[in-house]
Amino acid sequence: MLPSLYIEAATHFSAMKHTLSCASERLYSTHVNPQWVNLLNVLEMNEQYERCEGCELFTTSGRHILDFLSGYCVHNAGHNHPAIVHALKDELDHRGPAMLQSHVPELAGELARELVERAGGKLERVFFANSGSEGVETAIKFSRAHTRRTGLLYAAGGFHGLTCGALSLMSEPFWRDGFGPMLQGTQPVPFGSFEALERELVTRRYAAFIVEPIQSEAGIRVPTAEYLPAAQELCRRYGTLFVLDEVQTGMYRTGPFLAAHHFEVEPDMVILAKALSGGLIPVGAVLMSEAVSSSVYNSLHRALIHTSTFGENGLAMRAGLATLTVMEDERLGQRASILGEELRRGLIEALEPYEMVTAVRGVGMLSGIEFAAPRNLKLRLAFEAFHRIHPAMFSQVLVMRLFRDHGILTQVCGNNFMVLKVAPPLVVTSEQTGEFVDAIRSVVAVAHESGTFWSEALGLARRALNW
Ligand SMILES: Cc1ncc(COP(=O)(O)O)c(C=O)c1O
Question: What's the CA gap between 123 and 258, in Å, rounded?
Answer without folding.
Answer: 12
